[in-house]
Amino acid sequence: MNETTPPSVSASSPSPAPAGGTLGVAVVGLGATTSTLLAGLSLIRQGKNEAVGSLTEMGEIDGVAIRDIVSLAELADLEFMAWDPYATNALEAARHARVLEGPMLDLVADDLAAVVARPAAFDQSWVSRLENTDNVISADTKMEQAEALIADLEDFKSRCDRVVVLWSASTEAYRPTSAAHLSPAAFELGLKENDPMIAPSQIYAYAAIRAGVGYINGSPNVSSEVPALLELADLNQVPLVGKDYKTGQTLMKTIVAPGIRSRRLGINGWFSTNILGNRDGEVLDDPENFRSKEVTKLGVLEDLLKPEEHPELYGDISHMVRINYYPPKGDDKEGWDQIDLFGWLGYPMQLKINFLCRDSILAAPVMLDLILFTDLAARAGLSGIQDWLSFYVKEPLVPAGSTPIHALADQEAMLFDALTEMRSA
């Protein structure tokens, strides 16, 4: 067993129940990433494309397909519902996002049009750039919002064999935790009293946990990891995954930084900037919302380089991260990294990375894998933080007392170890 095997999966973990039947996926946010995932799944089901980027569909462990190691839901058995603060459906969302080309959308139009946004729990004070919302739950309190979401989930559960909830909506403003987050009782009182420190994403996490279904946080929001919700997740035996999809620039850091450290090359500075023009870029143009993203991006490098072990190489790095909203870019994100290195005799060197990527195209297979693996965790009886899924996220949640693992190769080993332990009979 690899030494990075997480405490949340052990040899005593029960074998997962079979994955037969319908897996319902309740997604928060019917925007570019969700509509791109749905379009891709439709094309794959039609035999017109491959699940490129997905380990659940194309991955192997020691030459054996992952699907032959563990029982995973079939793509044909996935059913979707969504919440969004705008009255839309997935086809309209895809056309608005302009990720996919017209002829490709024509092939999936009927499937996408069938996924219609339900009214969302939304508060503009957390996402100031989203205006003129027309599909918001009408409620006097946050508890009433939570109860409306739970009712949606119970209705969805009545039509599916199992359900998971995936947050794939806009990044919320960064705000610290408060007294309302310290215990389930305090949190529920805060919901009833409209505590301003309880975010919409936390309401969704609470609803998922109360409904007894797994919750995935695909954003940098402070969400399910607050003490109140962690305790509730354990009581309700609900798996939690997060946070923030690891797709573009941070993916490159988790590949490149461990290599630099392995060769014991020094780093004076690492400057990262992103240019993107989709709704995510617009939301992150607000400093409060960017702060949430900045926290997840800045924390990665220190954990990767371990400056306390080699302060002479990594103890004084100037690390900066910027995100620039540029509407003409659309979903075509561009990441620039300027890395100032030094080597033998202190001589300076530079490494420059220009990653011209597509935000939603990178996110879609990550979303798929997280959905299928979270369902696997639930069928295996695993609850609370699932750190064996760190491979997919920027800021891995870990149990108290554990240290996050950021290096991609180590995360892959941890993922493979966990799947091997859950091998189907």
Q: Which key features would you list for this structure?
A:
alpha/beta; Rossmann fold; Dihydrodipicolinate Reductase, domain 2; seven-stranded parallel sheet; four-stranded mixed sheet; globular; disordered N terminus
Listing every helix as H and every strand as E from the N terminus to the C terminus, the arrangement reads EHHEEHEHHEHEHHEHEHEHHHEEEHEH
- The assigned CATH architecture of the largest domain is 3-Layer(aba) Sandwich
Terminal CA distance = 19 Å
Radius of gyration: 21 Å
Largest sheet: 7 strands, parallel
Could you say which structural class the secondary elements and strand pairing correspond to?
alpha/beta
What does this structure look like?
The protein has 425 residues and is of the alpha/beta class. The protein has helices spanning 32-45, 55-58, 66-69, 90-97, 102-113, 142-157, 184-192, 200-211, 227-235, 249-262, 279-284, 287-305, 311-314, 359-379, 408-421, and strands at 23-28, 60-61, 64-65, 78-83, 117-118, 162-167, 214-217, 239-242, 266-276, 318-325, 334-342, 348-356, 384-385. A hairpin with a 5-residue loop joins strand 11 and strand 12 (348-356). The two termini are 19 Å apart.
